[in-house]
Design brief:
Order of helices and strands of chain A: HHEHEHEEHHHHHHHHHHHH
Strand content of chain B: 25-35%
Largest sheet of chain B: 6 strands, mixed
Structural class of chain A: alpha/beta
Shape of chain A: elongated
Oligomer: heterodimer
Largest sheet of chain A: 4 strands, mixed
Radius of gyration of chain B: 23 Å
Structural class of chain B: alpha/beta
Number of helices of chain A: 16
Distance between the termini of chain B: 58 Å
Distance between the termini of chain A: 32 Å
Shape of chain B: globular
Radius of gyration of chain A: 32 Å
């Protein structure tokens, strides 16, 4: 058996044992269902089409027609198609609303009345009220002596157009926040898991048994690989619904496709880097409970990056963080989703990340090899990297 | 069984450590220690706590790299591949508590280079042998303390190693478990393989070990065949089943070495007549059981290491007064 085979065996155990844990399947299920919901729900909401409303109108014909015209014209404003149902009197209108034959009824007299079942159809009622006030305005303008043309002119002149800015970038931002949240939570969880797993092995002296069989390198890299694969499988659970939707030709929120592809690269590289460092830090503890605090520097960087990335991903700060090894795995996917990354930035970022991984593997395995056999107290980095000291009893 | 053993006998199957030195900071853990483990004999690496036994064993397995010295196997420097074929049960031994017993042993066998099917078969056989056959599917955390210790032993033996090294295997075991483990150890060496065990409980293992290396403060103070060491010692002891006052035997040439519930052990001064000492005791109280004995392992150790207490006698006395 060579070192690579030993490493694979160590990794295999991690994956196999993770798959035996109920928590693993719960996390996988939550991610899968959450992602599926995010892909499927907009389809249902979007495919419903405009809502249909029936509005009963009571009043003299010309007036009722005028009102009906205005009201129907307001329908598209709130994605509705409004049909007018002329009725003879207020009693019939009340009965109509009560029996749910119409959604709203309007009695047009000196003091117009809107009849509606309590608490229903707020937006429709709003539109009806708006149509009524338009009608009343027309009446007054006529009373003031304006001609029909002039009235039309007054009513149409100040037409308001709502201009929605950055509609695309809004959905990109939402996608990127969702993405970075998933990456952040996965990195955090998996990283702590590696440190914790190594701390358990050291504290329970399992490492003592294993080190007599396997060199420290394969032991550490196998752990990182195994736990990393478990993390990637969790990410896959989140990605599969997106890929399926792409495959069957569904429309994705803008920007999420490229960001997703980018996220996979940066997530895998970032995961590797974080886990290598977490493994070395985990080997320095004395008791299992110290694993969380041992990786706290990494956690702090991760949390800070996540927070800063939410507001600053598209600024100079975000640009700089896209090159920094420990921050780029969170920042780059967001910048990709927002369409902020240049090709040079991406290539440089990956190169720096890969070099950092090589460095972390080298230094990390040295720290691990020295720290895992030193028991008795929690080690400091200086102690581990410096001359050999301390040691077993 | 390797064919060369048929030709060369046990001579070629030798695990040896030569000139091992190890420091931890300012503390010298081992100072030029030599150790030889031939096949077919129970070899004991003995000494008090902190003597350096565990450090030496970790060095044998490459867990620690010594400051000086070499570990050799069958005449060449031991390699990682050699070591992977050995079995080691460390003093501070762990197993994955949330893993199933059989899975864990199979996995460890595979780490040693066995294929999965062979590893699983060995695990099944060994668990059966160790009386854990019906617990194979259980997680380790569901087992009693004694059972976990057997799983730890199984983890060191599942690949049927040529060399089995057990660091303080008896610590924390009840008498039944001690008996059981002793049987396993004897079976291992009787099949012509190598076994090294360490213990600080010298008298517990003196009937098991055939050859010993005694270390103290990182140095070897005594080594050799246990029977030879005892026979060649000039010291003799008289054990009687009564409590003896020192004054009774002083003139006959004996001093009280130790007294416990089962009687008194008297050290005979050189040239003393054991029968005369026995008569001196019998003149005071009736004696129903007695024996002349060679020194025990701990008595040999005390003689070889000098004063076992690190502090001078006067200081020890004053600390006793303080308490």
């Amino acid at each position: 058996m060579n070192q690579a085979q030993a490493m694979l065996l160590v990794a295999e155990r991690e994956v196999r044992e993770a798959m035996r844990r109920r928590l693993f399947w719960i996390i996988l299920g939550v991610l899968f269902l959450g992602s599926t919901a995010a892909m499927v729900i907009p389809e249902f909401v979007g495919s419903d089409g405009p809502t249909k409303f029936d509005v009963a109108v009571v009043g003299e014909t010309a007036r009722a027609d005028g009102f009906g015209e205005v009201l129907v014209g307001l329908g598209p404003d709130f994605d509705a198609v409004i049909s007018i149902v002329p009725l003879a009197d207020a009693e019939a209108a009340r009965a109509g609303v009560d029996d749910e034959k119409v959604d709203v009824a309007v009695v047009l007299d000196d003091k117009p009345t809107i009849i509606v079942r309590a608490g229903e159809n707020d937006r429709l009622v709003g539109a009806v009220a708006q149509a009524l006030s338009s009608l009343s305005l027309v009446d007054r303008l006529h009373d003031a002596g304006l001609t029909d043309d002039e009235v039309t002119d007054v009513l149409t002149a100040p037409q308001v157009r709502v201009e929605e800015l950055n509609k695309e970038s809004e959905s990109r931002l939402a996608a990127s926040i969702g993405l970075s949240l998933v990456l952040y939570l996965l990195l955090l969880t998996v990283m702590v898991q590696v440190a914790n797993g190594i701390a358990i092995e050291k504290a329970n002296r399992i490492s003592e048994v294993l080190l007599a069989i396997v060199r420290p390198g394969p032991l550490m890299f196998g752990k990182v690989l195994g736990v990393g694969l478990v993390g990637v499988s969790a990410l896959s659970a989140a990605i599969v619904p997106v890929v399926v939707k792409l495959a069957i030709g569904g429309k994705l929120p803008a920007g999420i496709g490229g960001a997703l592809a980018g996220s996979v690269i940066w997530f895998v590289l970032g995961l590797t880097l974080y886990l290598l460092i977490a493994a070395a830090l985990g080997a320095m503890v004395e008791r299992q409970e110290e694993a969380g605090s041992a990786v706290s520097p990494l956690t702090a960087i991760l949390v800070a990056t996540f927070i800063v990335a939410q507001g600053e991903a598209d600024t100079v700060v975000g640009n700089v963080l896209a090159y920094v090894p420990l921050t780029s795995p969170i920042v780059v996917p967001i910048r990709l989703a927002m369409g902020e990354s240049s090709a040079i930035e991406l290539v440089t970022s990956v190169v720096i990340l890969v070099l950092s991984i090589l460095l972390a593997a080298r230094v990390g395995s040295r720290v691990y090899a020295r720290a895992i056999v030193q028991t008795g107290h929690r080690l400091k980095l200086r102690e581990v990297l410096g001359r050999r000291s301390g040691g077993p009893g | 069984m390797p064919p060369h053993r048929q030709i060369d006998g046990y001579v070629s199957d030798l695990l040896a450590a030569t000139g091992i030195s190890q420091r931890f900071g300012d503390r010298v853990a081992l100072d030029g220690v030599d150790l030889e483990v031939p096949a077919g004999r129970v070899i004991g690496l003995l000494g008090p706590n902190g003597a350096g036994k565990s450090t030496l064993m970790r060095i044998l397995f490459g867990v620690l790299v010594p400051d000086a010295g070499t570990v050799s196997w069958r005449g060449h420097l031991a390699t990682d591949a050699d070591r992977r074929s050995w079995g080691y049960m460390p003093q501070e031994r762990g197993v994955y508590r949330d893993m199933r017993v059989h899975d864990q042993l199979t996995w460890i066998a595979r780490l040693h280079g066995l294929d999965k099917a062979t590893g699983a078969r060995h695990a099944t056989d060994l668990l059966e042998r160790l009386g854990l056959g019906d617990r194979a599917r259980d997680r380790v955390q569901e087992l009693s303390g004694g059972m976990v210790q057997r799983v730890q032993l199984a983890a060191a033996m599942v690949h049927e190693p040529e060399v089995l090294v057990l660091d303080e295997p008896f610590s924390g075991l009840d008498p039944v478990a001690v008996e059981f483990l002793s049987d396993v150890i004897v079976q291992h060496v009787r099949s012509g393989r190598l076994l090294l065990l360490s213990s600080h409980q010298l008298d517990l293992v003196e009937n098991l070990c055939e050859s010993i290396t005694l270390i103290h403060h990182g140095r070897v103070v005594l080594r050799g065949d246990v029977r030879d060491l005892k026979a060649s010692s000039p010291e003799r002891y008289l054990r009687v089943d009564v409590t003896v006052e020192p004054a009774w035997v002083e003139r006959a040439g004996a001093i009280v070495a130790s007294t416990d519930a089962s009687g008194t052990r008297l050290r005979l001064t050189p040239g003393a007549d054991a029968a005369a000492v026995l008569d001196a005791v019998r003149s005071q109280v009736p004696v129903t059981d007695f024996a002349v004995e060679a020194p025990s392992m701990s008595e040999l150790f005390v003689r070889a290491a000098g004063d076992p207490a690190p502090a001078p006698a006067a200081a020890a006395d004053s600390s006793a007064v303080d308490r």
